[in-house]
Amino acid sequence: MMAPEAGRSVSPEQFQATAAAILAQLAAVIVGQEETLRAVLITLLAGGNALLEGVPGLGKTLIVRTLAEAIDASFSRIQFTPDLMPADIVGTTVMAEGEGGARGWRFEPGPIFSNLVLADEINRATPKTQSALLEAMQERSVTVGRQTHRLAEPFLVLATQNPLESEGTYPLPDAQLDRFLFKLLLPFPSLAELVAISDRTTAGDVPAARKVAGTEDILAMQRLAREVPIAPHVTEAAARLVLLSHAETPGAPDLVRRFVANGASPRAVQGLVLAGKIRALLDGRFNVAVDDLAALAAPVLRHRLLLNFEAQVEGLKPDAVVAAIVAAAV
Questions:
Q1: DSSP secondary structure string, 79-123?
Q2: CATH number 1.10.8.80 is the correct assignment for the domain at 229-330
Q3: Superfamily name with CATH number, domain 1-201+213-227
Q4: What is the pLDDT of residues 34-83, one digit of tens each?
């Protein structure tokens, strides 16, 4: 989560109004999923990346495309398959003929060179291809040969993942999981939402988002988010949440000591604090509360906890462990 460069500024009131306008455009197109939409916006404003897990057909592509339309950003979709190669993502250097017949090498950028990138079914690609995203997600650049190419800002990777019990999937390595700010679980629509989806998409004009912000607005909002003050005791609470995810920490919950092989990394503390600042701004506050951290603990921590074999046998879910950590920490 790199800090955006200096530029134009926005006030907290403008931040809240712009965010509300973006969420309104998302809600005009997408039925339900309010918490997911809010979390995706927080991810964008934090300069992070998000991992979405859910069954097909829940509108994951539509979320990213609609967000791109609302902020007038470029969008690309990469369908991950077992035969996908790293060059299919980042691009490649090709021989090109210039004026006068002179030949030289030219870099042809891949689909990663967009503001918003949907990495669809990321765990269907081989680990080698998955690793092509690591530099882009963390450093906001890609290196091809000896040349490093910067990516456009703002930049967001929204990756979707099939459940690991699906045939033909490759578990994401811990190093890559740690680069996702959030892991979001998409619930299946309710009866009323399924009816609304049908009504909205099968009768008359299909709704579309309109532009309510620009990429410069997003960058300015990212800068403001980092300026939100946070009290020392709130930062300590974020650090305590992460420490208590490690079995060797004194006072760690019983679920952690029994079922967690590896706890969360320092990136989790950064994620909790920065996402907490954005959540406070969205709620009209210019200070972070411990309640913000508790509300964000599950999406920040669930993919950073490595559960042991005993937990798998017991059918224990990471969210149950996170709930125990929150109860012990705050």
A1: E--TT--THHHHEEEEEEE-GGG-EEEEEEE-TTSSSEEEEETGG
A2: yes
A3: P-loop containing nucleotide triphosphate hydrolases (3.40.50.300)
A4: 899 999 999 999 999 999 987 777 778 888 889 999 998 999 999 988 88
